[in-house]
Amino acid sequence: MEKLRVDIEEAGYEGRSGVIRNVSFRVGSGELVGLIGPNGAGKSTTIKAVLGLLKDVKGKVEFAGGKPSYAYIPEQPVLYEELTLWEHLRLAASAFGMDEQAFEERAGALLARFRLEQAKHDLPSSFSKGMQQKLMLIIGFLHEPDLYIVDEPFIGLDPRAVKDFLDMLETERRRGAGVLMSTHVLDTAEKICSSFLLVNDGRLIAQGDLDAIRESCGLPGGSLFECFQTMT
């Protein structure tokens, strides 16, 4: 079952139309689709177009059932200085329409998974970058959406937190959620992604599983990093 269908003819910004062109792809149930490309290739613009944050979009973005059910995990943590960690989670739960019991159980389990139980009543503005990023992950996982849109999630995370994140993603994929993830960590992407979208100069230049990417760049047996280097 498709969780996301994207057919963008053109998208951009005021004064900069056509930053991305002819970008079409699908994210299915249980799929982890890696969005990769060099800086300035159009990855962030693609994500913003999917999220509905751009005014100048020609094309269609459709979610499963016609109703968006997604979590967006940004590259840079977005925090309220006056709210504690727990208050951030309660605010998110309220926005998601979660009932109190479901919130308490889910939030408690996620805090334990990411080892932030002792900091639940502290202000995240005083946290390390890694702890702030873990809070963003917890908020994203809180309401178990149909789709995760994740932008460079590994920045600031220590190896144990990376494993916790990847284990949670795998659990959500088994539940049937789809994942669209932008990342520069190509060795990890090669291991965990079911397919890839390779973007360069605002265009989708290759897509498919690793074998399809290898065929597109003429590198049978090549790594994702080698394919990336060849095609960009």
How would you describe the overall organization of this protein?
The structure is a single chain. This protein has 232 residues and is α/β, with parallel strands linked by helices. It has a single domain (2-231), classed as 3-Layer(aba) Sandwich (Rossmann fold), CATH 3.40.50.300. It is 38% helix and 28% strand. The protein is built from 8 helices and 9 strands. The strands form 2 sheets. A 6-stranded mixed sheet has the order 5-6-7-3-8-9, with helices on both faces. Strand 1 and strand 2 form a beta hairpin. Helix 7 (210-217) packs parallel to helix 8. The protein is globular. It starts with a strand and ends with a helix. The mean pLDDT is 95.
Summarize the structure.
The protein has 232 residues and is of the alpha/beta class. The protein contains eight helices and nine strands.
Largest sheet: 6 strands, mixed
Ends: how far apart? 32 Å
Runs in which pLDDT lies below 50 for 5 or more consecutive residues are: none
CATH architectural arrangement:
3-Layer(aba) Sandwich
Query: How would you state the average pLDDT, rounded?
Result: 95
Strand order in space, largest sheet: 5-6-7-3-8-9
Main attributes of the structure:
38% helix; 28% strand; alpha/beta; six-stranded mixed beta sheet; 232 residues; 8 helices; 9 strands; three-stranded antiparallel beta sheet; Rossmann fold
Strands, helices and their partners?
Layout: E1 2-13, E2 16-28, E3 32-36, H1 43-51, E4 56-63, E5 70-73, H2 85-96, H3 100-113, H4 129-141, E6 147-151, H5 159-175, E7 178-182, H6 186-192, E8 195-200, E9 203-208, H7 210-217, H8 224-231
Parallel strand pairs: 3-7, 3-8, 5-6, 6-7
Antiparallel strand pairs: 1-2, 1-4, 8-9
Helix pairs in contact: 7-8
